[in-house]
Model the fold of this input.
Amino acid sequence: AEIQQQQEYQDQAERQAEMVEAQRQQILRGVLTPEARERLGRLKIAYPDIAMQVEDRIIMLAQSGRLNTMIDDATLKEILSRIAPSKREITIQRK
Done:
C-alpha cells in the first residue's frame, strides 16, 4: 500500500511538472518569433541550464507586462549576452 501511495505521489508530481512546462511553452510561443524560438531550442540542447535561465527571464518579463513586442532573434541574442558570460578566446602561439 505504501509503495502504491508513493507511485501515486510520483505520478501526480510528474503530471504537475508537465502542466507547468506546457504553460511555460505556451507563454514562450506567445512572445517569441519563430526564429527566436528555434535559437532557444538549439540552446536548450547544447546548454540546458542557460536556456532555462533565458526562459525564466523572458517569462518574467512577459508576466510583468514589460514586453510590448515579440522577442525576435536579435533581442534574444541580447538577452543571452547578458545572461551567459562571454567565452574567452584561446589563442595558441607557436615559438
Remarks:
- The helical segments are 2-31, 34-46, 48-63, 73-83.
- Residues 88 and 94 are 19 Å apart (CA to CA).
- The chain is about 75% helix and 0% strand.
